[in-house]
Amino acid sequence: MLQQTRLYTGLIIAAFVIPHLLNHSVGLISLTWMEAALEYFIGFWHHPVATLMLYGSVLTHFLLALWSLYHRTTLRMPFWQLSQLVLGLSIPPLILAHVIGARLSHELLGTTATYEATVQAIWNSEYGVLRQTSLVLVVWIHLMLGLHYWLRLKPDYRRWIAFWQLLATLVPLLALMGFYRVGLTLADQAVEPAAASGYETGIDDSTSPAAGGYDDYGGYEDGYPSGAVVSKSTKTEVDQTLDWVRNTMPLVFWGSLTLTLVLRGARLGWSARRARVRVRLPAQNQLRARQGQTLLEALREAGIEHSSVCGGRGRCTTCRVRIMEGLDQLPPADDTERQALEGVQADDDVRLACQLRLTSDLSVVPLIPYQQRFSYLRKPGGVEGIEQQVTVLFIDLRGSTALAEARLPYDVVFILNQFFAEMASALEETDGHYAQFNGDGLMALYGLDGDFEQGARQAIRGAQRMLHRLDGINQRLEKELQQPLRVGIGIHSGEAIVGTMGPPSAPIRSALGDTVNTAARLEGQTKHLGVPLLLSRHSAEVAGLALETLEQRQLPLRGRDQLLDVILVKEPAKLAW
Prior knowledge:
3 domains, iron-sulfur cluster binding, Ubiquitin-like (UB roll), Alpha-Beta Plaits, 15 strands, adenylate cyclase activity, alpha+beta, SQR/QFR_C/D, A/G_cyclase, cell membrane, 3 helical TM bundles of succinate and fumarate reductases, 16 helices
């Protein structure tokens, strides 16, 4: 719940920051356009509901950051996560003056902010441009880190990553360029300092116009926007309010941060007195950890690398481990962990290291290789990949055992090399992807580019090309073979988990799932049915085959409760669309 709240409040803040910076970039056109865009921006965000939503999100986001810092048992974390934390905590001191000058003073005086007054005041103040530039960059980098490490788990984001990186670079660059252009233009038109030095002299009635300069706090000189007309009594009240905010808010921020760190230190000190738990890992690695800290924190504190794509927020499940011993002593999964594990259909003995609080000794086995942590997604089986509609083709060489018994090993290798070379050429000709090798057969994937129908047609053409090339091998090796080589091919289409699999040192792009299992079992049935090609009716329909003249049947397959409609193809070369 807290993680979701932190995410949603961050998205609300992003919805404010991104249009705000885009408004800055309009300054590259003209100040007039900049002011016109600002009217729409203010019209929305100055509405009471929007204001409450924005500042409520800012406060909630800050408090949740302190809560997260308090609960951390170690400050060892990935560099990106440390950067996001440091940048986030740098924002309040940088933005306070801007909020006072650009929003609070206007609210107190009942006026509306303008780019002309705000930019001119910033530009005329000492270090004002540097402070504002730093604020833009710090806020933007913090925001982009958060969005990136949330969105990078989503396939559409990764597919367009170059585009998003370009936008992430252009938005702050154009915003600062617009700000600089307007600032330089207004600086050339600036009035003499004496003409804007506070209340006009010689006025002794109840009102006077305020100045537009910036003071050392980064707020408007005397706290007022340029052109505002206020009474002397109002001036005194507003001065007192602004002074109180300027003096109090930094104390609140630094006091909150200091109190959080002090309470965190006290909690860790008390925790250190408690009994430690023993965590056993593969390869006889063992560590002792404090009770109450998460398994991921314990691993990081011990300097042990462990996958955690989302940074330990329960979003990606790449930190999941299998509990080998001590499962019955662990606390039950909370809502965040339970929902994440249900999303990958994890077994009961699988837990998330980032959410699992240590209470007793246990033995675990990490399920995701650290070396491949950036590519793993929340998919069943601990496999890196995405769910995708593909067509799977299995081909197996019949009689390979008898072939090996009748020939010398080198002769068998020669024949198999000829076979696989021709099958690989058939795959290349039909845009198939070699996905798996099993000694005397292989698995191929079609439709990886996202065109499901075209993939199914190409798989059938691939089967035709394989059988054609097999005829060529039989003709070339006719004198060496006692009987022609024969194969069985099974084809099925549907959803599968497609991605990089296997050991970290030799990963391959392959697929898992019921679609793959069904294609493999169809290939196994070709031997019993006496046909070279057996494909599911679903694949034939997706490919657009003419089914009227084809032999159709319903087959029971191991692992399936229902019969599967299949097409028996005795002469694949005659298949037509």
